[in-house]
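Continuing the batch. This is chain 6 of the set; chains 1 through 5 are on the previous pages. Same settings as before, nothing changed between runs. Recording input and output for traceability.
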Amino acid sequence: MNKTAVVYGVLVTIIVLALIVSSDVTKTPDFKPQYADFVTAQILSADTANTYGDNLKVLRGVHSRDQLLNVMRGFTEALGVKCDFCHNTDNFASDEKIQKRTARVMIKMVANIDKNYLDGPRMEKVTCFTCHRGASIPKLVVER
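Output for chain 6:
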């Protein structure tokens, strides 16, 4: 092997290692969604009645417009979408969109994880943002 090839090989290795060290793919973002706690509160609410909103099947304890809108804002932050992603904006109560039906399944999953696996003191709750990170389809770790 000639000296030039060895030098280039060492330089490439150093550059690759520097890029890996500087990128730190395991670092979690500093950003915490503003409305994530509203979603968690409604999913885990002990209050099972809803006095506001139509066709609320998995959200619990919704009693005002502001409360419902804050939860929906949490979903839009977590998935990086707008209302029409899940809803027919002419009839928000409609279940016609698959995304809305999928959201209900995901809400139940998050509630199950939070209630049955993360119910200890000082345990951080799972939210939609935990996996979605602002994308409608969660990215795999290798895609970062």
